[in-house]
Design a protein that fits this description.
alpha/beta; 9 helices; 9 strands; 23% strand
């Protein structure tokens, strides 16, 4: 298994340097969901987590978010090599379930999230400024007065991204963030994420089945199926025998597309 544990140049404004997963495992009901998961997530880099359905990607994300007990260690390490006690993690889900008929605006949603109280009790000037600033980071400020139910898939994901960035996290987790988003929305979302990574030196972990997206934007790819099967650059992972074997035996829909995607990287 190839793995990139090198130390990139550290941005002086970045308090967190990397997230280290060391032999992380999760069991539930006597069943092993993931085991012996070890890799690093570096600031300023986008790490893509790939694997077939049922490979344990969601379980691993839940462990990272503190939603599942786990064995092994998850360390957040600062620029001096010391443990970072309480890292901020921003999370963008695949979709947000809500009643599309609800008269809730983008401003209302974000203000409630920031203030942790009902918006009808009033919104402070500071909170309003935070909402505008966060939306401007994701090129979504024009959406501030729109009802959530009228947003396109791409617009909603940019709003969720703005919420995940306020306050600015140490780690940004994107869980299939562009599933069902049209091409225009996809391009804008990814351009925004790429710009944020550079401007804020963010550590980003993205779960995705879109190989072209991963190839274009990921620095490191981690192939998992209950454990880490391969880690490296997109070209290294997609051209590996582990990638081909995983998707030939997974029984997933889209098998031919997945295997052919890997073939593009083989000599």
């Amino acid at each position: 298994m190839k793995s990139d544990h090198s130390h990139p140049v550290i941005d002086p404004h970045c308090s967190l340097c990397r997230i280290e997963l060391d032999k992380v495992g999760v069991t539930a009901g006597g069943e092993t969901l993931i085991s012996d998961i070890s890799f690093h997530i570096h600031c300023g880099q986008l790490t893509a987590l790939v694997g077939p359905n049922g490979a344990g990607k969601t379980t691993l994300i839940q462990a990272l978010l503190g939603q599942r007990p786990h064995t092994g260690q998850i360390r957040h390490v600062d620029a001096d090599g010391h443990d970072f006690p309480v890292p901020r993690i921003g999370y963008v889900p695949q979709q947000l379930p809500f009643d599309r008929e609800m008269p809730l605006t983008v401003r209302d949603l974000m203000a409630a999230s920031l203030a942790r109280r009902p918006v009808w009790t009033g919104v402070s000037k500071k909170t309003r400024q935070q909402v505008v600033q966060a939306l401007s980071e994701t090129q979504a400020e024009a959406l501030i007065d729109k009802r959530l139910g009228t947003l396109s898939g791409g617009e909603l994901q940019r709003v969720l991204l703005a919420m995940a960035l306020c306050p600015l996290p140490d780690l940004l987790v994107l869980d299939e963030p562009v599933s069902g988003v049209d091409q225009n929305g996809l391009s804008l979302f990814l351009q925004t994420v790429s710009a944020l990574r550079k401007s804020h030196h963010l550590a980003i972990l993205m779960v995705s089945h879109d190989w072209d997206l991963v190839r274009r934007y990921a620095d490191t790819v981690i192939l998992v199926r209950q454990k880490v099967l391969r880690a490296g650059t997109p070209a290294e992972v997609f051209s590996s025998p582990e990638f081909e074997e995983t998707f030939r035996t997974s029984g997933n829909r889209g098998l031919e597309r997945d295997v052919n995607a890997g073939a593009l990287f083989r000599p």
